[in-house]
Write a structure and sequence with these properties.
The chain has helices at 8-25, 37-47, 52-65, 69-74, 77-84, 91-107, 115-119, 126-137, 146-156, 165-178, 184-197, 216-220, 282-293, 328-332, 343-347, 353-371, and strands at residues 236-247, 250-255, 266-267, 270-273, 297-310, 313-324, 338-341. The protein is α+β, with helices and mostly antiparallel strands. Bound molecules: iron/sulfur cluster.
Length: 372
Amino acid sequence: MPVGFPSSAWKRDFRRRLNRWFGKNARELPWRATSDPYLVWVSEIMLQQTQVRTVIPYYERFVEQFPRPSLLAEAAEDDVLRRWEGLGYYRRARQMHKAAKQIVALHGGDFPTDFDSVLALPGVGRYTAGAVLSIALDSRLPIVEANTIRLYSRLLEHRGDVALTASQNRFWEFAESILPRKGCGQFNQALMELGAEICKPKAPICESCPVRMQCPTFAQGMQSEIPAPKRKVAFEDRREAALVIWRDNRILVRRCGDSERWAGLWDFPRFPVAREVGEVTRSQLVNGAKQLMKLRIKPGARILRLRHGVTRYRISLECYEAELVGEEQRTLREDKAIRWLSIDELADTPLNTTGRQLARHISANRIVAEEK
Ligand code: SF4
């Protein structure tokens, strides 16, 4: 037994209190109605860094379209990304797509049920493999993720930086040590539910917590100090420009490269510009288009400004109309990372968030213009 862990009696009491609380308070969630490991896996990937209420409609649409690994494997990447659009962290969707292909190639289309095979799937780490197999098949595997890290920190009165390897190792050992012999899927879900719903980062609802009498952090009133607060992110302002380039009622879009933000998604040609006030200058637009895609353009009017955040950047995106000049149109036709799309086709193409906002703006203004 590692030093500093509670006694066996403490653990028995903890399991009993937690299970009783979960029996009365578990939320009804669509993925809790299944023991299909594939569906549990879809929910677990979607829930990474994303809130439950955001995930529910995405999960329902996704599993309706891709109810089995083989259907996900056969789908075009654009279709998978379109289903994912708006959920963020698009790498998850691309890795799921790859994982589905691996499931078909190596496991005959059946989601694997042994830990090593699940762990070998793209985008799956120790937490996800443990969560899927314990929830779907009641395998006796521990879990450590954001909500439980906070809960374990407080139960263990762990004051160190939770991101350190030593801290992570401690949490995994603790998670393993408290597992019941049976019912691990329920138990793991109860831990996550308690972390998410009661043991919240700010102002945990200790008065409703079933294990408060066992919690040293509660006893000492240290909830705001444990876990140690993260360092504040230093935000950086950025300015970017996007171009709306028309040809025969079609608009130019480009596929974001594998090393770019939004890899695999489509977007309007977009590039950074200097952070100055007022309009982006013509030469900034001309040079930006040239550097991004070797495009020679004639800038037009600004049509929209969008503000949004990506990681630590607060971005002001200035959207301009532009025309191609010279011989560009011929060379562009041969590039697979470029498409000319009608407004209707844009609706079926996976775009990043600002790309979708801009596409909707163009569509709405076209309709208004045509009605005049
Ligand atoms: Fe978290 Fe409060 Fe419960 Fe302790 S008593 S586990 S701090 S909610």
